Amino acid sequence: QISLQYERDGSFRHTCGGTLIAANWVMTAAHCISKSRTYQVVLGEYDMSTREGPEQRIPVNSEDIFVHPKWLSFCAACGNDIALMKLQRPAALSAEVQVARLPPAGTVLPNGHPCVLSGWGLLTS
């Protein structure tokens, strides 16, 4: 789980989550991306209210953000809500930072197959 952050008024603010799919590539949702913003990815974060120490902050060049060509911002229900971001440098993999283990391309998982999701939301409301 990465924290996608955008720059505003001289500091970076969390906007969305994402997944490290290779040492230098992140997958996130297209609705999280605005071409007018400057982004960084934070990896190894546990509590966004404090810096624990192992976090990695890696900038993303705007020309290295690829939103699905069929994404329609005015029609989220139409699908294709995906974007890829190439990091300026590869993440340093560690116990805290790992590449997601995805099934091989073309794999169709059976109904009821267990999957793990992560996010930055509240555990209780």
UniProtKB/TrEMBL annotation:
GO terms for biological process: proteolysis. One of its GO terms (cellular component) is extracellular space. This is CAC3 Proproteinase. It comes from Certhia familiaris (Eurasian treecreeper). GO terms for molecular function: serine-type endopeptidase activity. It comes from the Eukaryota. Residues 1-125 form the Peptidase S1 domain. InterPro entries: Peptidase_S1_Elastase_sf, Peptidase_S1_PA, Peptidase_S1_PA_chymotrypsin, Peptidase_S1A, Trypsin_dom, TRYPSIN_HIS. Keywords: Disulfide bond. PANTHER family: CHYMOTRYPSIN-LIKE ELASTASE FAMILY MEMBER, CHYMOTRYPSIN-LIKE ELASTASE FAMILY MEMBER 3B. The gene is Cac3.
